[in-house]
N5-carboxyaminoimidazole ribonucleotide synthase (Rhodovulum marinum), 718 residues
Amino acid sequence: MTEPLAPGATIGILGGGQLGRMLSVAAARLGFTTHIYEPGAEPPAGQVAHRVTTAPYEDVQALAGFAAAVDVVTYEFENIPTAALDAIEAVVPIRPNRRTLAVSQDRLTEKAFISELGLKTAPFAAVDDAVDLAEAMEEIGLPAILKTRRFGYDGKGQARIDRPEDAPAALAAMAGAPAIYEGFVAFSQEISVIAARGVSGEVACYDPGANVHRDGILRTTTVPAPLSTAQRTDAVLLAGRILNALDYVGVMGVELFVTPGGLLVNEIAPRVHNSGHWTQNGCVIDQFEQHIRAVAGWPLGDGTRHSDVEMQNLIGADMDKVPALARDPAVALHLYGKAETRAGRKMGHANRRLGPASA
Amino acid sequence: MTEPLAPGATIGILGGGQLGRMLSVAAARLGFTTHIYEPGAEPPAGQVAHRVTTAPYEDVQALAGFAAAVDVVTYEFENIPTAALDAIEAVVPIRPNRRTLAVSQDRLTEKAFISELGLKTAPFAAVDDAVDLAEAMEEIGLPAILKTRRFGYDGKGQARIDRPEDAPAALAAMAGAPAIYEGFVAFSQEISVIAARGVSGEVACYDPGANVHRDGILRTTTVPAPLSTAQRTDAVLLAGRILNALDYVGVMGVELFVTPGGLLVNEIAPRVHNSGHWTQNGCVIDQFEQHIRAVAGWPLGDGTRHSDVEMQNLIGADMDKVPALARDPAVALHLYGKAETRAGRKMGHANRRLGPASA
């Protein structure tokens, strides 16, 4: 598929959560129909999609049927089983590509890829057992975080090690899964670059946003992040190098640590990203439409920010704030249509326009 | 229904065209699900709605089932048969209200209502036959337009009378339907005020936009319209009076003529309006969300414009411009997902951000 998709074509999306939902709306805005593939019943994205296939990622027949009904497949999360990807790619292109998924599905592979590019990361080591762990503690030092190499998100599958005595419990928390030991990095802030790359190789980045996490979950992103011009330029160039090296097509979230020694890559996410939700109310083309443009082979939007924005996640009981936020003239609410409010569950977000774009 | 609807509630929408489609997306953004009622197959709004009922407006049973499945009903067009409204209102509230529909479904009733409010309109007279027509020509003069009192839109059901000889053909074009004779008004521009009123009576208006029509169809709306401060204030106050007088809940499009003698009301539309599409890229809360907020009993957004915008309709073959528009960094495309491009058919629109909001 090298020609741009014409309006009326169908975009297949793996995953029916809030990211799939907002991708679906963006696709509709460009005249595409969407088809969601999601194992769970009543997915949030299904409320705004043309079609929904409800089936597990192990159902190769359902996957083949889904692939045959769409013109391109993209995804809202990176932990898609390889067999599912094989079944789809036999029929229709997957964007972003398989290589990116292979790199980003494994924290160790990801860190190694980034290091080989010449970019900085936190110090890391593979940990499969207690011997590896002892060596890593010796080499890299404490404090550190032990993380499963695969299937971790929002702070799950992670254990902090402050003192040597914490090591056995941390290893036990991995439940036998291969892990990665990451040394702590002294950073002044965490920022994200939401970067996009089109089929013809052009790259467009949104301005970096400053992220605040609590309990391992993103709480706010504020744009612009308080950075020097040099830091801002570095962040964007660095993100562009990652996308180019992967021959990437789509939007990627690149999380960076700002340290006295420069920018460190914390993590990459080969998809639209929570820290890019501000673009919905800060730019002419938001990250969701940017991603759809890329996977559809369209030219990218330019990503210029017209407004300063603070994005606040609404997590669990934060939904109680909705009536007050609805009365706030500077706030745009984005709710995800999830039936049940649960502690720690992302229910929506609120973009507060702070004013016209500052320098 | 006086309590605001909680996220998760369902908004019923009569009509599955582009307005229903954009209302549906706005409702989803606030966490509502939507249910479209539309006689035609494969409606554009159905691609982004949770449920669709396909049935004619004469199917009282289907209407009752639809009404029972939703928490409030709104609509994207005003020519809904009275019996359909009766069937729905027996079960669930309709917003905007029945009175507004009665007023706006008939051009004569509408003009009379506006005149009684003390607001100016073009000179008009009821025309049921050749005698009425001769009297109207005598009284109001030429040139003039003869329009059917009901079911006209986008220049359909209208005939221009420049000379007395045109009268018989104009009358014949009405096909026996009751008509209204409207004298020409010398105006310097046509503007629209997109006004909203909430359940507790608060009114919020967007800045007036300047409209350009061709062949009876809106082509562009540019905001801000070139008006004096006094004219702008007049326009907004006048629109507010109309909404208050109707105890209106929702968004209304108020088309005005700017004349040397002041503002004249051309037409009101009890729904979101093509001339308000610019708000999608000019305001934090657009007209579609504003309408949903009103009919859901939520507080209104404030409607402040953060950017100057030119909205351009994409009609029929204008779809050929889509690739170029997609490359334009200042343009946001909004396509309607219509399967077939036809001459005169509204296929989408393009909002061009002109810059930060000017005074």
Observations:
- The mean pLDDT of chain A is 95.
- Chain A touches chain B through 47 residues (CB under 8 Å).
